Amino acid sequence: MAVPSTILLGISAVVTAVALGSTYALTAGSTEDRAPHAERNYGELPPDDFGGPVTLSQSPSVSPSTSSTRIPSPSAGPKKRSTEAAEPNRSGDRLGSSAPVEADPLSSPPAQDHPGSGDTGVPPKKKLRVHRGDLVIRTPGKVIDGLEVHGRINVEAPNVTIRNTKVIVPTSSETAGISNNNDNGAGMLVSNVEVLAENAAPGVNGVVGHDFTLQSSEIHHVTDQVHITGSNVIVRDNWFHDNYHFESDPYQDGGASHDDSIQIIGGGNITIAGNRFTGAYNAGVMITQSIRDVDGVTIRDNLLGGGGCTVNISEKGRGPVDGLVIRDNRFLSDQRIDGCAIIHPSTTKVTHSGNVWDDTGRPVALSRG
């Protein structure tokens, strides 16, 4: 018996509706969770090139020096943060595909407004989720926000943001708390973070790499706060303090630690602006050219202290450091070598102006070394 065409059309409509519904169910999925998720990888990370250890072996048993009142004892727990309301970031620029150069506007604090507990690190009212273990970030543009990481963060993707996060670096794995020291992590932005070592140990650093911006952050109780291994770096409006120093450091062949607030071992287009430095034993800013030439560094509008000499330039047999500008900084009078604010080889020319001693306002003179 022939089926009326109206019935056939009705059956066809039902089948089509069911099919379309099934397709939607397969493609739509559940509502997207827009909360940030940290990617997890608990394997070993690539070694950081900062002159320290490259394995995850147990740290040697050593004790920090007590020779300087600026160096904390190993029994000191993490510092309590001030409950003052956090001020907004003074700078909002981000390192993108075209890195800023010195001519670009980078805001800096006035001489009496250097970064401290009220405007660096995690805002006091920010709630943090605890994550235990290392994080390896491989998603471009990933945002890490509001974590307390008991481990290390290694960035292996471009334009990753890490903000409002505390990183407590295990002392059994001497390396950096945050690193993009590879060919894939360009454009990393680290903002309002706090980095410190879990306990006193040599070789634990703060932020290591190249092609990144570090801003409005607090890094303390590590050996080196920042280790720059390449070009296109902005370090601004941060507070660096309380370096760990060891009179017998296994990574210095048993000699004293070379703890610096910032060490630059290669690269160019580097701006260090508006930071506060205290507590390094070796240098506040150390330029060594250990792995490649350094060309194009501006150090400006900082409160600089610490070190034998606070800013120390070494050529390491690679010839002069070119394009070095040091201007409008205030220097604390806490160097181990009295009055040695800036030391440089005679072959490296330093463009400097407006550098004064913080306590007297008198001009700072260059030292030759």
Shape, principal axes of CA atoms: globular
Pattern of helices and strands: HEEEEEEEEEEEEEEEEEEEEEEEEEEE
Provide the CATH topology of the domain at 133-368: Pectate Lyase C-like
State the CATH class of the domain at 133-368.
Answer: Mainly Beta
Outline the biggest β-sheet.
Answer: 14 strands, parallel
* Overall residue-averaged pLDDT value: 76
- The total strand number stands at 27
User: Hey, roughly how much beta strand do the residues contain?
Assistant: 25-35%
- Distinct helical segment count: 1
C-alpha termini separation: 107 Å
The CATH architecture designation of the domain at 133-368 is 3 Solenoid
User: Could you give me the name of the CATH homologous superfamily of the domain at 133-368?
Assistant: Single-stranded right-handed beta-helix, Pectin lyase-like
- Binned, the helix content reads under 10%
Structural class: mainly beta
Radius of gyration equals: 25 Å
Outline of the structure:
With 369 residues, the protein is mainly β. 7% of the residues lie in helices and 31% in strands.
Question: What's the arrangement of secondary structure elements?
Answer:
Blueprint: H1 5-28, E1 129-132, E2 135-137, E3 143-145, E4 147-150, E5 153-155, E6 161-169, E7 176-179, E8 188-197, E9 205-209, E10 212-215, E11 218-220, E12 226-228, E13 233-236, E14 239-241, E15 260-264, E16 267-273, E17 276-277, E18 283-287, E19 294-300, E20 303-304, E21 311-313, E22 322-327, E23 330-331, E24 342-344, E25 350-353, E26 356-357, E27 366-368
Parallel strand pairs: 1-4, 2-5, 3-6, 4-6, 5-7, 6-8, 7-9, 8-10, 8-11, 9-12, 10-13, 11-14, 12-15, 13-16, 14-17, 15-18, 16-19, 18-21, 19-22, 20-23, 21-24, 22-25, 23-26, 24-27
